[in-house]
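Page 37, continued from 36.
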């Protein structure tokens, strides 16, 4: 069975993007914060605590009264939700048989009490869940949301909640010089030659990489070519300077790299439309490389070529959105 296309979109609820579980009506057995942990759920058959078996997820007590349990997630980046994954990994006799998801868009930083009184809208009606399964559900909604509410019926355990969608940050904060390639600003990876060891989306994640696994690493090339990744910027913008970071890539950093960009409206396949930002330049291992850029035209996409292969921790493309792009 083919995986849903929405799984290729970023997880807007991930802790990597500063997503957070701000409230749960019950978390007696396992804490709510586990829902947005980026790593896959783990399980230790011998791990027991005072309250029972320890699970890497969110688990509520057995209900003895009518009602259902729920948790509220603040998305790390607001956005349009295209699908959710309600992962019941390792929960077999204690998973919820049903779930639903509601959403709301709010300004600022509402408290849990304010969120409880918010005008929630359903985006996923009550659906059946399977135990020990990554249950995937497409979402049909074009609205921008800031928070989601996961409802489970009547109780039980959920390991992870993944909220895949398209980032829609507040344009009021995309002023001045920003990282146009940042996922949290609405950028995303649209093409990549090889993602054998890790996702190319890692290079546009917030913060510094903490180890090699938090960057993009491709397989070793044996064919004489080179690897690349194409990033759609947050919007059309004037690029001032860029950073190509090989931190933690010691014996497997690229030997060289080149960065080019292309204006809005030009076809990515039109080689003549690409503008050189950083010519092919030798890279050092485990090093943050910064380059001044003098691009004559605003750009919508950038392409990072690495030669012949190797790992990149982060790519930063600093610049200013054009006036039309800043109004979107």
């Amino acid at each position: 069975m083919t995986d849903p296309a929405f799984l290729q979109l970023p997880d807007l609820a991930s802790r990597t993007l500063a997503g957070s579980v701000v409230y749960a009506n019950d978390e007696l057995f396992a804490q709510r914060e586990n829902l947005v942990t980026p790593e896959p759920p783990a399980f230790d058959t011998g791990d027991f605590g005072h309250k029972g078996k320890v699970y890497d997820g969110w688990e509520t007590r057995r209900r003895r009264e009518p009602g259902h349990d729920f948790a509220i997630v603040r998305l790390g980046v607001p956005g349009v939700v295209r699908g959710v994954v309600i992962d019941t990994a390792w929960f077999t006799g204690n998973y919820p048989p049903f779930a639903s998801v509601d959403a709301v868009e709010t300004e600022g930083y509402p408290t849990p009490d304010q969120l409880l009184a918010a005008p929630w809208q359903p985006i996923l009606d009550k659906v059946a869940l399977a135990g020990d399964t990554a249950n995937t559900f497409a979402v049909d909604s074009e609205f921008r949301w800031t928070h989601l509410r996961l409802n489970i019926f009547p109780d039980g355990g959920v390991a992870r909640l993944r909220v895949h969608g398209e980032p829609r940050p507040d344009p009021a904060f995309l002023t001045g010089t920003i990282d146009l390639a940042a996922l949290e600003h609405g950028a995303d990876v649209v093409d990549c030659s090889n993602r054998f060891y890790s996702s190319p989306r890692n290079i546009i994640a917030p913060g510094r990489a903490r180890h090699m696994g938090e960057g993009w690493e491709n397989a070793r090339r044996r064919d004489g070519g080179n690897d690349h990744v194409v990033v759609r910027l947050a919007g059309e913008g004037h690029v001032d300077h860029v950073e190509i970071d090989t931190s933690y890539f010691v014996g497997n950093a690229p030997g060289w790299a080149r960065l080019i960009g292309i204006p809005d409206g030009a076809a990515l396949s039109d080689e003549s439309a690409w503008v050189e930002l950083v010519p092919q330049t030798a890279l050092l291992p485990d090093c943050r490389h910064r380059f001044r850029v003098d691009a004559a035209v605003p750009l919508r996409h950038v392409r990072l070529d690495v030669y012949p292969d190797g790992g990149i921790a982060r790519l930063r493309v600093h610049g200013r959105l054009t006036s039309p792009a800043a109004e979107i």
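The domain at 176-326 is CATH 2.60.120.260 (Jelly Rolls). Flag for discussion at group meeting. The CA atoms of residues 61 and 90 lie 16 Å apart.
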